[in-house]
Design goal:
The protein is of the alpha/beta class. It is about 40% helix and about 20% strand.
């Protein structure tokens, strides 16, 4: 402790002040326990006014304050100061010596033993016993992570079910409050509609709920890629506030989605394939009547108040009473991945990849010869009674259209932006490598080998 800092401490007691070199701002922990941002001029005035009320000689006040703040700039500097998702306020010293000052964090419910029957009733009734335990196991891991300040990988939770099946209620009045109460709509950034995500700095929960979803393969692919990066990526991420330089931070985010379970809405989900299925908890919600009426604004207010009273008891239940089944616990996230079989079946039956197959299979055998050529378009595998074709997505559309105009137009309708069909075929190659495989990539264009009819693995 330098001379000026010692004088300040002698007269004013322990004081915590840090300097953010990037913004040239000082952060001071006030008497209310909050980190407040100040300019140097304002902080000088504050400390002078405090010292003037002590017995220190007036002639020493200016030099003491000026020396103290200069010492803060040199030895109490931090690389980043601000809100950091999933971290409690205070100084973080990283392994490489960098320092981060977290100025605000999530306000987690204080665990206290009590009654949380309303929350449990809603979760078990809406999700069913097994899925409710999966949901609570994932929530428990997140609560533990936020309380300890330790970063942890997690799956994205997807709630899919009928309209008015409590999806948004669970997110807004149970999931988000249990993780600190700070949430943001992440969908525009996730699909590339905006490059700015500065609001992510002040939210632990990134929500995708009741938005105007986009079903193009590129949007779904971007959605899946961002979710993977946020939940399973390496320790660290970048946020880009509008009008400012991007920031590299170490957040602890969680992702939760809600959508209806009709075929059209399910096609808006990230592409679930072998390489990323372990990154999701896909849960089906039921149309379950709430334990309290919630039709009018007044009734909804009463229900929210009832749930708020149970947050502390629910936190205690998760941390000290709840024992998830052994087949639920495990893996790097603490919870095994789960994809609801019913929803997964609907995805395979009605998704755009399935639409590609449904278009091709009826016309496949008629494509045995190329128009005007002796070479066969699709080579017959006589023993397996299958036909094999090799080419690019664009070639597939063109050649199918020559033989069956309706089928060709149907493929074209799936090929939005000129590259969707290729993405769908690539996704199918991950799911069913015995039927569709990516054979080569030349000049940025993928070539595929397709065998139809599909093997029983697809059915």
């Amino acid at each position: 402790m330098d001379h000026h800092t010692q004088i300040i401490a002698n007269y004013l007691g322990p004081i915590e002040v840090y300097f953010d070199a990037a913004t040239r701002a000082f952060y001071y922990l006030n008497k209310r326990g909050r980190w407040t941002r100040y300019s140097r001029k304002t902080l000088e005035w504050h400390f002078r006014s405090l010292l003037e009320q002590t017995s220190i000689e007036n002639k020493l006040i200016y030099s003491t304050v000026n020396g103290f703040l200069s010492e803060v700039c040199v030895n109490h500097d931090v690389e980043f100061a601000g809100s950091l998702p999933g971290r409690q306020p205070g100084l973080i010293i990283h392994e490489d010596g960098r320092r981060t000052l977290v100025t605000e964090g999530p306000i987690l419910p204080k665990p206290e033993k009590g009654d949380c029957s309303t929350i449990l009733n809603i979760l078990e009734g809406t999700l069913g016993t097994k899925q409710a335990k999966i949901f609570m196991a994932a929530l428990r891991e997140s609560v533990r992570s936020f309380r300890s300040g330790d970063w942890q990988q997690s799956q994205a939770i997807i709630l899919a079910g009928p309209i008015n099946s409590n999806k948004s209620l669970i997110i807004r009045t149970i999931y988000v409050p249990m993780l600190g109460g700070r949430a943001v709509n992440a969908y525009p950034y996730f699909i590339g509609s905006t490059e700015f995500n500065g609001e992510f700095l002040r939210a632990e929960v990134l929500v995708v709920d009741d938005d105007v979803y986009r079903s193009e393969a590129t949007s779904r692919a971007r959605l899946g890629a961002h979710i993977k990066k946020v939940t399973m990526g390496s320790f660290g991420a970048q946020v880009h506030p509008k009008g400012k330089e991007p920031l590299n931070i170490t957040p602890n985010w969680r992702v939760i989605m809600a959508l209806n379970d009709d075929p059209e809405c399910l096609q808006l989900l990230p592409l679930l394939e072998r390489s990323n299925a372990d990154k999701y908890l896909l849960l089906k919600t039921n149309d379950y009547p709430l334990p309290l009426p919630a039709d009018t604004p007044e009734e909804k207010t009463l229900l929210r108040a009832k749930l708020r009273k149970e947050y502390s008891a629910f936190a205690h239940f998760l941390l000290h009473e709840f024992e998830p089944p052994k087949d639920v616990v495990g893996g790097r996230t603490g919870v095994r991945p789960f994809l609801n079989p019913s929803l997964l079946g609907e995805l395979r039956q009605f998704g755009p990849e399935a639409a590609v197959i449904s278009i091709l299979e009826p016309v496949w055998k008629t494509l045995s010869l190329s128009v005007g050529q002796e070479e066969p378009f699709a080579t017959e595998e006589k023993e397996a009674k299958r036909y094999r074709w090799t080419g690019t997505a664009a070639e597939l559309i063109r050649q199918v259209k020559l033989r069956d105009s309706d089928a060709g137009r149907a493929l074209e309708s799936l090929n939005k932006n000129g590259n969707q069909l290729g993405i769908y075929l690539k996704n199918l190659s991950h799911k069913f490598p015995d039927d569709i495989c990516l054979t080569s990539r030349a000049g940025g264009v993928n070539r595929f080998e397709i065998s139809l009819p599909l093997s029983e693995a697809f059915q």
